[in-house]
Amino acid sequence: MERWLALLAALVAALIGVLFFWLGGPTRPSTEIAQRVFVVEVRDHYFDPPGLTVQPNDRVVWVLKENAQGNGHTVTAYHPSQDRPLRIPAGARPWNSGLMTQIGQSYSYVFSLAGVYDYFCALHEQQGMVGRVIVGGPASAFAVEQGLPAAAQSSIPTIEELSGVVGEAFSALALLQGIAYLTEQSQTALALRQLKEFQSVFSQSALAEALAKQGVREQFENRLSVLEALLSRGAPISAVAQTVAHAKSLLDALTRL
Ligand SMILES: [Cu+2]
Question: Which of 86, 102, 146, 186 is 20 to 30 A away from residue 79, measured at CA?
Fold first, then answer.
């Protein structure tokens, strides 16, 4: 009898241990907390923004926003495993969302290695539905002659564009979309931190200067402040989304290539 009790006690102890490990799992890594979330909208037939710059460990989420023809879209890395030339860093994990057909459906990828990542929609590559993510600092482009469809090659933002104000505006756009997305996912604290971090670097940025030249810097900063207030008091997603949309529209003049 005592043996059974001892066995039972050991079993319960083991179960509790597993439970603690399991519960402790998701909150564990401190690096994950530093991660920002950028959202690229998947539309008919382009990615918005078509290019952006992030830091290692940042997450990019592609969200399906349009699917008028019903055939869907994919987000697929240029990689030999997809019968395409290698256009992501050697050693980086390739990705393929598979067919996305439901509006609101999303696919996410965490970029860990520095470098240039090009991707395409398997259905509309020929129509130039391609995108580029630069991870880390200055990068060098791929050779132009790599057998991409002409429309695809000409739609990918150049390294120069992404390293300049256009790229900053693209990244800001994706970051703002990320804030709306995080709010939607009830991750308001993360959204707020992402916003504050952006605000702290914005004032010194070339983007701020460019917006000043357009005469909309103050308006843009006001939107960021409103957004901060909304997130701080846990305002509904509709109010957050509206403010994000307004801030995004102020970037329009810079993001039209
Ligand atoms: Cu597509």
Answer: 102
Checking 200-206 for CB contacts under 8 A at 24+ apart, the result is 205/168, 206/164, 206/165, 206/168
Do 124 and 45 contact (CB within 8 A), yes or no?
A: yes
Q: Separation of 35 CA from ligand 1 center, angstroms?
A: 28
Q: Which residues surround ligand 1, an ion (CB under 5 A)?
A: 45, 73, 121, 123-124, 129
Q: Indicate the pTM of the whole model.
A: 0.85
Q: Which of 103, 128, 163 is the last residue of a domain?
A: 163
Distance 99 CA to ligand 1 centre (A): 9
pLDDT digits (tens, 9 = 90+) for 139-174: 676 655 567 899 999 899 999 899 999 999 999 999
User: Given 131, 163, 195, which residue is the final one in a domain?
Assistant: 163
Q: Which token pair is 75? A: 């987000």
User: 192 alpha carbon to ligand 1 midpoint, in Å?
Assistant: 32
- Give the helix ranges, DSSP H, for 97-236: 150-155, 159-163, 165-184, 188-202, 206-213, 217-232
Residue 229 alpha carbon to ligand 1 centre in Å: 37
Instruction: Give the chain's domain count.
Output: 2
